[in-house]
Amino acid sequence: MRIFKKIGIVLGGLYLLGCIGLYLYQDKIIFRPQLLPDNHQFSLGEELDIVVDEGIKLNTLWIKEPNAKGVVLYLHGNRGSNRRCLRQTRAMRGNGYDIFMPDYRGYGKSDGEITAESEMHEDIQKVYAFLKQH
Questions:
Q1: How far, in Å, CA of 106 to CA of 81, rounded?
Q2: The pTM is what?
Q3: CA geometry: angle at 88 spanning 84 and 94, to 5°?
Q4: Domain of residue 115, CATH code
Q5: Are the beta carbons of 49 and 58 closer than 8 angstroms?
C-alpha cells in the first residue's frame, strides 16, 4: 500500500510541475509569430500600415479584386504571418471579394508584441473600423 502512495505523490508532483510549466510558458505555446524583414515584398496585394496604438502599427495586406462585391477580413490564426497564409487564400481569390489580412502585433512586419488577449481584440476592432471606412 505504501508503494501506491509513493507513486501517487510522484505522479501528483509531476502533474503539478507540468501545470506550472504550462502556465508560465503559455504565451510561447499559444503565440508563435514569424517575423519578416522590413524589406520583404509580398508576391501580390497592397501593403498598408494601420496605427493601432501610439508607436504601434500593424502591417496589413489587401488583395483586391476588380469590381469587388465586398471584402473578407482574414485573420490568420496564432502561427506564422501573412507570408505563410498567402497560400491559404488561393481558394478565396477569384470569387469577387477583396481579402484583407492584418498581421498581429509582433507578427510579420508589425510592431510591438501581444501582451493580452484584450489588446489583440482592440487591435482587430481598429482594423475593422479602418476597413469599414475604406
A1: 9
A2: 0.79
A3: 130
A4: 3.40.50.1820
A5: yes
